[in-house]
């Protein structure tokens, strides 16, 4: 039997996270949004109806409320 997934174990890990701030500066969908996925370190994971996280992008910006289920492996 496998161990249940503990999202809090991701704290301190790096993942690819969608950078909504960079995307919103473009002002429209560009079709291939892969350029908006940026490496970030997960600072805190918490339950808010589903698992979400506060992250710090590699450029130093903090961002809040990213869905853990939408993060990607580096």
Account of the protein in words:
This protein has 74 residues and is mainly beta. The chain has one domain (7-70). Helices cover 9% and strands 39% of the residues. A 4-stranded antiparallel β-sheet has the order 1-2-3-4, with no helix packed on it. Strand 3 (51-57) and strand 4 form a beta hairpin. The chain is globular, with a radius of gyration of 13 Å. The mean pLDDT is 90.
Task: Summarize the entry for a quick read.
By secondary structure, this protein is mainly beta.
Largest sheet: 4 strands, antiparallel
In oligomeric terms, what are we looking at? single chain
Please bin the fraction of helical residues.
under 10%
Compute the CA-based radius of gyration.
13 Å
How many strands? 4
> Which regions have little confidence, pLDDT < 50, spanning 5+ residues?
none
Strand content: 35-45%
- The SSE order reads EHEEE
**Tally of domains:** 1
Lateral strand order in the biggest sheet? 1-2-3-4
């Amino acid at each position: 039997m496998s161990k249940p997934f503990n999202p809090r174990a991701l704290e301190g890990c790096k993942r690819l996270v969608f950078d909504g701030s960079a995307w919103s500066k473009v002002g429209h969908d560009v079709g291939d949004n892969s350029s908006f996925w940026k490496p970030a370190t997960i600072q805190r994971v918490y339950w808010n109806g589903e698992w979400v996280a506060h992250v710090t992008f590699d450029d130093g910006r903090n961002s809040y409320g990213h869905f853990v289920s939408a993060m990607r492996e580096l």
